[in-house]
């Protein structure tokens, strides 16, 4: 009797599960077919840069796009930047990438190499309304791989030097000039450092490192992509990064900052000069003091960071034409460019002389043109295999130097060894 | 003796402070603005008290929806977990069948595999079932929990077998024994399961990150991650949102606390 019961239960359960599974898949499929039959197509777009404060701007861009292209609807999803690529990788692995997604320059190559991106060369070539010259500079090249066009540049941002004019006036120091080098920066910072104010700040991490070594004529990788992390120029540059804190005391150490962000300290008049991105323009707008921006001092070379965001499409998208239209819109359309400019959402890529004028005319700070001047000496993050692992390894060693567990030479040669293994 | 007590009290107070200070900090920043961190005096806090960041949280984002999603998904996952873990725990505790111990060990062994290893196959499975971006995908995997099964098995084992035998003599079958005798007797165990299950589902981040892909299915932890910009974080808004996401779990814990502690004590070795 008991045995019978157990068997019955097992069979019933198994049946229930089967019916459940079949029923569920059934539902999903019919819904899918329904959408295909309709005239209207919906494309899915995933972004990291819209959150948290540009979601409404993105919505107005999409509304404009849907107005221009009847029959195409865009569903968007915002994911926090730190988790964005976790999700994208899972979707790439299971072939469920969204139709269109944002991707940045340094991560692009990985996805292009893995063959998950849609080749848009033909779509772009056949489009009568599109010319490569619509993008400024040579930015049409950034998302090409193997001569094929896998995406369009969407927008730029760069890093410049922000300075607190009031603190400079109080200390009687001349404002930063375009021809300044590290030497002049140091002298000014030493005069500025007093009464709880630190003269200067630059982060100590991978992104700052590749630029700082370039300002000293070095590089993390040679032209063939082999690591040259422990070169003489690089060692000097990293020594300078450390000396600002531990020798000259013009930059707060991590302990002295005790968890405060450098941007917050600048806004609180605790740091006089800070290297940070063009994305801070709107955040600093309401600071209670006068401030401006200037080109970054270099040592032997003038170099600035440039960050590039692009738009790519999935190889498995069912609506490549709609995807292309949306990518084109986000990149070069005048209406999208206008919304981007007005909302201070990075620099538009559209090749349009009025873009620069409009950007500069926005008022505070005075020297807005610096943001564009910095592009002339811009370098982009190194593109290497296993980008995130390389970054982690370098950051780890850099941190050891920062907290005094290793000398600069030791840290860099350890990083060199690790990175050589990672990209092998 | 008294001295010893004093030391213990001091240690306990220090421990409590370590837990409470970050929480208090969160409250202050949520109800004022991020700049307060630099001049945190009572007067400054009093002067800059405002609900602005809460207004931002509710007016600029779909926070009500996220809150509903989190509550709904967590409740479904918890309910499923209670039913499934209690049933399987009962089977492993009371019903004899061949290879039972081996099967149980195998089931427990799944606890050793990190989520990160199973997440992609699980995602593909959900995708094949056309469940991506549905509520079902959000709560279904959370319903099965090896730890919960283990917990319930231990609890059922601690209930005297005589009760079950008596019911059996009176003509009750397995189902009746389970629902009318065992379940009511194991309330403290169920409470522990409910609280841990709810907390787990509430705080889960990786799985919702992967399967939820529009605003309508976003849960609170995803929202908190979205609030952290690539370059800059508005701490005040983030802390307000965090406070909103912490409150429900706090309520659950306070109400279940009595059962919770009792349950943990009883499931141990007796």
Salient structural properties:
heterodimer, A: 424 residues, alpha/beta, D-Maltodextrin-Binding Protein, domain 2, 10-stranded mixed beta sheet, two-stranded antiparallel sheet, globular, B: 270 residues, mainly alpha, MetI-like fold, 2 domains
CATH-level-4 superfamily name of the largest domain in chain A: Periplasmic binding protein-like II
Q: What is the CATH superfamily of the largest domain in chain B?
A: MetI-like
> Number of DSSP helices of chain A?
18
Secondary structural class of chain A: alpha/beta
Give a topology summary.
The complex is a heterodimer of chains A (424) and B (270).
Chain A: H1 2-37, E1 41-47, H2 55-68, E2 72-78, H3 81-93, E3 100-104, H4 105-113, H5 121-126, E4 144-145, E5 148-149, E6 151-164, H6 165-171, H7 182-192, E7 198-201, H8 206-215, H9 232-246, H10 254-257, H11 262-267, E8 271-277, H12 281-284, E9 291-294, E10 304-313, H13 320-332, H14 334-342, E11 347-348, H15 353-360, H16 369-376, E12 378-379, H17 387-402, H18 408-423
Chain B: H1 2-31, H2 42-47, H3 52-60, H4 63-94, H5 100-109, H6 115-128, H7 135-139, H8 146-157, H9 161-169, H10 174-185, H11 187-203, H12 206-211, H13 220-226, H14 235-266
Helix pairs in contact in B: 1-14, 3-14, 4-8, 4-11, 8-11, 9-10, 11-14, 13-14
Protein name (chain A): Multiple sugar transport system substrate-binding protein
Pfam families (chain A): SBP_bac_1
InterPro entries (chain A): Bact_solute-bd_prot1, SBP
Could you describe the 3D structure shown?
The complex is a heterodimer of chains A (424) and B (270). Chain A has 424 residues and is of the alpha/beta class. Chain A has 2 domains: 40-155 and 307-360, D-Maltodextrin-Binding Protein, domain 2 (3-Layer(aba) Sandwich); 158-306 and 376-423, D-Maltodextrin-Binding Protein, domain 2, CATH 3.40.190. Chain A has 18 helices and 12 strands. In chain A, a hairpin with a 2-residue loop joins strand 4 and strand 5 (148-149). In chain A, helix 17 (387-402) runs antiparallel to helix 18 (408-423). Mean pLDDT of chain A is 87; it is low at 15-37. Chain B folds into 2 domains: 1-50, no CATH class; 53-266, MetI-like (MetI-like fold, Orthogonal Bundle). The mean pLDDT of chain B is 88. The chains are: A alpha/beta (424), B mainly alpha (270). Chains A and B meet through helix 1, strand 2, helix 3 and helix 11 of A and helix 6, helix 12 and helix 13 of B. Chain B: It is a multi-pass membrane protein.
């Amino acid at each position: 009797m008991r045995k019978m019961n157990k068997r019955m239960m097992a069979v019933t359960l198994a049946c229930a599960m089967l019916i459940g599974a079949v029923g569920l898949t059934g539902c999903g499929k019919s819904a899918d077919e329904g959408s295909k039959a309709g005239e209207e197509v919906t494309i899915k777009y995933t972004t990291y840069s819209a959150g948290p404060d540009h979601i409404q701007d993105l919505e107005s861009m999409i509304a404009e796009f849907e107005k221009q292209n009847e029959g195409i609807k865009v569903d968007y999803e915002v994911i926090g930047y730190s988790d964005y690529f976790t999700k994208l990788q899972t979707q790439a692995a299971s072939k469920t990438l969204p139709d269109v997604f944002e991707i940045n320059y340094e991560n692009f190559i990985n996805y292009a190499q893995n063959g998950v991106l849609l080749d848009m060369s033909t779509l772009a070539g056949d489009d009568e309304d599109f010319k490569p010259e619509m993008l400024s500079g040579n930015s049409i090249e950034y998302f090409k791989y193997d001569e094929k066009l896998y995406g369009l540049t969407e927008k730029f941002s760069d890093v410049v030097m922000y300075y607190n004019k009031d603190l400079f006036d109080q200390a009687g120091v001349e404002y930063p000039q375009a021809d300044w080098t590290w030497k002049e920066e140091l002298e000014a910072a030493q005069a500025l450092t007093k009464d709880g104010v630190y003269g200067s700040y630059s982060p100590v991490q991978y992104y700052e490192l590749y630029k700082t070594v370039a300002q000293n004529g070095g590089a993390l990788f040679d032209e063939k992509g082999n690591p040259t992390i422990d070169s003489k120029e690089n060692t000097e540059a990293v020594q300078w990064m450390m000396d600002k804190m531990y020798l000259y005391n013009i930059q707060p150490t991590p302990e002295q900052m005790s968890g405060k962000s450098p941007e917050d300290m600048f806004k609180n008049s605790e740091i006089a000069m800070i290297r940070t991105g063009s994305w801070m323009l709107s955040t600093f707008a309401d600071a209670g003091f006068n401030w401006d921006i200037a080109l970054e001092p270099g040592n032997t070379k003038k170099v600035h960071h440039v960050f590039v965001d692009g738009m790519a499409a999935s190889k498995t998208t069912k609506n490549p034409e709609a995807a292309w239209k949306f990518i084109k819109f986000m990149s070069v359309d005048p209406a999208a460019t206008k919304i981007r400019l007005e909302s201070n959402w990075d620099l538009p890529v559209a090749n349009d002389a009025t873009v620069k004028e409009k950007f500069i005319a926005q008022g505070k700070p005075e020297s807005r043109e610096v943001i564009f001047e910095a592009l002339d000496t811009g370098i982009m993050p190194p593109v290497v295999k296993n980008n995130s692992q390389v970054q982690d390894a370098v950051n780890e060693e850099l941190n050891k130097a920062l907290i005094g567990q290793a000398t600069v030479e030791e840290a860099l040669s350890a990083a060199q060894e690790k990175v050589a293994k990672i990209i092998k | 003796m008294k001295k010893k007590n004093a030391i213990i009290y001091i240690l306990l107070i220090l421990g409590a402070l370590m837990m409470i200070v970050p929480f208090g900090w969160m409250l202050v920043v949520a109800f004022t603005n991020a700049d307060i961190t630099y001049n945190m005096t009572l007067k400054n806090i009093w002067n800059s008290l405002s609900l602005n960041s809460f207004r931002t949280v509710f007016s600029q984002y779909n926070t009500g929806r996220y809150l509903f999603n989190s509550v709904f998904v967590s409740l479904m996952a918890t309910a499923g977990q209670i039913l499934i873990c209690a049933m399987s725990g009962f089977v492993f505790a009371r019903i004899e069948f061949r290879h039972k111990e081996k099967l149980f060990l195998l089931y427990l062994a799944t606890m050793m595999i990190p989520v990160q290893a199973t997440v992609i196959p699980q995602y593909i499975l959900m995708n094949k079932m056309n469940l991506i971006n549905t509520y079902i995908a959000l709560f279904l995997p959370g319903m099965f929990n090896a730890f919960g099964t283990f917990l319930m098995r231990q609890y059922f084992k601690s209930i005297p077998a005589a009760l079950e035998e008596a019911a059996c003599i009176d003509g009750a079958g397995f189902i009746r024994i389970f629902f009318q005798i065992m379940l009511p007797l194991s309330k403290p165990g169920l409470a522990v399961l409910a609280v841990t299950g709810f907390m787990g589902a509430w705080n889960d981040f990786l799985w919702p990150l992967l399967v939820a892909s529009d605003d309508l299915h976003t849960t609170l932890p995803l929202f908190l991650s979205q609030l952290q910009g690539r370059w800059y974080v508005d701490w005040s808004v983030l802390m307000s949102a965090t406070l909103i996401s912490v409150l429900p779990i706090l309520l659950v814990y306070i109400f279940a606390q009595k059962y919770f502690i009792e349950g943990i004590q009883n499931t141990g070795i007796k």
